[in-house]
Amino acid sequence: MALGLNSSVFQNPGGPSPELAPSASSNDAFSFWKLPENWRDVLGPMVVASRAGAEHYLFELYLDEKQRCPPAALGTYYGIRKFIPRGVRHWLNSTAIHARRRNGFPNWPCESVLLDFWREWLKQAMEKLRISDGWHIGFWPGETRCCVVLTHDVESPTGLERMERIADIEQRYGFLSSWNLPLAQYPIDWLRVERLRARGFEIGAHGLAHDGKLFRSEADFAELGPLLERLAREHSLVGFRSPSTLRRAEWIASMAFEYDSSFADTDPYEPQPGGCCSIFPFHLGGLLELPYTLPQDHTLIHIIHRDPLQMWCLKAQWIAAAGGMILLLTHPDYIGTGEYLARYEEFLKRLRDLPQAWHALPSAVAGWWRRRSRMSLSIENGQPVIKGDDTTGAVAVRFSREPLCE
Ligand SMILES: [Zn+2]
Which of 27, 302, 308, 373 makes a 20 to 30 Å CA pair with 8? Predict the structure, then answer.
């Protein structure tokens, strides 16, 4: 696990960074849209410039360096956390968050700056090419026009016990989901976990423990990162979400997972507030980043005391209207019983009824986005042709039919 800190794109935004971002994995606008290859030369400088423009948001470069890593004061909190009763902990968190000076950016619960950026870039590209419509490789497979992903972080043995009950409800509405486990925090009943996996559910790594150590310092990361990767490999876990979503983008980018889901599109309520402003996957070194895009259950229930169902429906509609990825992060520990579970079930019903939505596991979304990155589009005799080693599911979509362009 080489940290590669000196050569990373983060010290040189927009500059070349071959080991972190090979050309097929770039976050520039051409690669985001997947446009016809014969446009590339004409749009050259615009393509190059768009990468730094997008990564300014994707990698949270709009924050100063200190804000892009876990706050130092967290160390003290984690040191005494286990002595504080859970109810008091929620109150403390809530008080601290309300007292924190809010940046006001990204906006919450919806931030459209990056969507506007993609749209405006495409508009300028079409002006340059003197065309009013065109083709791109659709964001999602087949006839689907948005994506729905359900994920859970399991914080305690209580959460672990509730997994199957929630999984039963999800399957009743045609969903599968992923379950991220902290691998060294409490004893995990792997037989129970494997039963879920045998039913088609996915299991991911929720770090080692909620102790704030993984991204605390370079020395901690050098010691704990390989241990985490080894445990994940032993249990065939390909996805990662950092405990408490604490993060350092360039360190996550160096980890041996297929995807990460530690970024929100916008989340001012986490211990490390911020957001990548994206409701689409993007490349983070060799990983795919799948940002969670709906407010967390914990935030709504314990921090700001809002009805989760209402907020989730509002945001899900907004994302679907833009053709993006609705990615929900809930905890069986918080929504696994009573009225909250009923609200969750009601939300699943609403998601099921969303038209042209691709219901997918995070590993499938990461795999799809990676494959899509490697495809190319050309126009032959006026018709779009998609090429690549595996183009299964890929379709060419006209901009005029693309939700993001509306
Ligand atoms: Zn957690």
Answer: 373
Q: Measured in angstroms, how far is the CA atom of residue 155 from the centroid of ligand 1?
A: 5
> What integer pLDDT is reported at residue 85 of this predicted model?
72
- Please give the share of the chain, as a percent, with pLDDT higher than 90: 85
Q: How far is ligand 1, taken at its centre, from the CA of residue 369, in Å? A: 26
- What is the Cβ-side half-sphere exposure of residue 120, based on CA atoms within 13 angstroms? 9
Q: Total structural domains in the chain?
A: 1
Please give the Cα distance from 33 to 122 (Å, whole number).
8
Confidence of residue 22 (pLDDT cuts 50, 70, 90): very low
Distance in Å, CA 43 to ligand 1 centroid: 43
Rounded distance from Cα 265 to ligand 1 centre (Å): 17
Dihedral of alpha carbons 29, 34, 37, 39, sign: negative
> What is the domain extent for residue 18?
1-406
Give the distance (Å) from ligand 1 centre to CA of residue 218. 22
Backbone angles phi, psi at 341, to 5 degrees: -65, -40
> pLDDT (tens digit, 9 = 90+) per residue, 213-272?
999 999 999 999 999 999 999 999 999 999 999 999 999 999 999 999 999 999 999 999
Tell how far the Cα of 54 is from the centroid of ligand 1, in angstroms.
28
Q: How far is the CA of 82 from the centre of ligand 1 (A)?
A: 15
Query: Which residues are registered as beta bridge partners of 137?
Result: 396
3-state secondary structure 247-283: CCHHHHCCCCCCEECCCECCECCCCCCECCCCCCCEE
| pTM for this predicted structure | 0.91
User: Domain of 104: which CATH number?
Assistant: 3.20.20.370
Residue 190, C-beta contacts closer than 8 angstroms, at least 6 positions apart:
235
> Cα angle vertex 364, ends 21, 117, to 5°?
50
**Tokens coding 320:** 């679907």
**Cα of 241 from ligand 1 centre, angstroms:** 8
**The pair of three-digit structure tokens given for residue 303, joined into one six-digit string:** 């921090």
Q: Is the pLDDT of residue 288 over 60?
A: yes
